[in-house]
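We store sequence, tokenised fold; for instance:
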Amino acid sequence: MNKQFYYDATKAFLLKKITIIEDALKDTQSSANSDTKSSAGDKHETSRAMAHIENERLAGQLLALQQQVEVLNKINPAITSEVVSFGSVVTTETTTFFISTGIGKIKTEDSMFFAIASNSPVGSQLKGKSLNDKVKVGQSEQEIIEIL
């Protein structure tokens, strides 16, 4: 697999989550609007307040996801390097890391990898390393076997 694969899979993961959050926001707003028409008194105010809190929570999640897409968009998948840096795909003996944005495990039909931020604990350890260098991942030391 090439770097474009990891970039596309990460972007698709983020865009799917954004769609889910946007749909939830629409549902919450729709629910609040219909509640306005059918409720009265304290129950009405409590329901509207809860919908407002939920909207704020979802809006915060949406903003965070949009910021992750912005970070991802700074990566040019066509550029490769011999030294691990932002945008690198690093394969060790057991795991593949895409140094991009802190999402965590991403599963595709063909593979599983971790999208991690360059300032995360593992990202910081990988940064600046080259092929055949050793890096501590969890409790084990692993060799870098590929950098894209």
About this structure: The mean pLDDT is 90. Helices lie at 3-38, 41-73, 121-126.
